[in-house]
From TrEMBL:
Pfam families tied to this protein: Phage_holin_1
Full protein name: Phage holin
Highest rank taxon of the organism: Bacteria
Native organism: Lacticaseibacillus pabuli
NCBIfam families associated with the record: holin_phiLC3 (TIGR01598)
Amino acid sequence: MKINFKVRSKNPAYIVLVVLSFILPVLAYGGVELSSLTTWKAVGDAFMATLNNPYALLTILLSVTGATIDPTSSGLTDSARALDYGAPADSKDNTIATLTARIKQLEAGQDDKD
């Protein structure tokens, strides 16, 4: 599975989604609210309750997978274009660098079709 985690780690929305994918199931399956996590023991108990619950672990795995998969490409991998990104796609500099790299690939006869 080829995924450009370097670029995703620079995207605040991705980081928030992954962090919430871990925290919310811990809170839900640990049976606690944020206000009751007043000691490290309470945090540890909630975390252990989640680790002992296969359903909660599956929920975390699916949430992280859903946050990671690029819905604009087929399968579980990033497209060749997305793998070439050096920064999140909305960056103007990144777009120019990506297009320049793609032009060089095409000129060299390396046509990777997605």
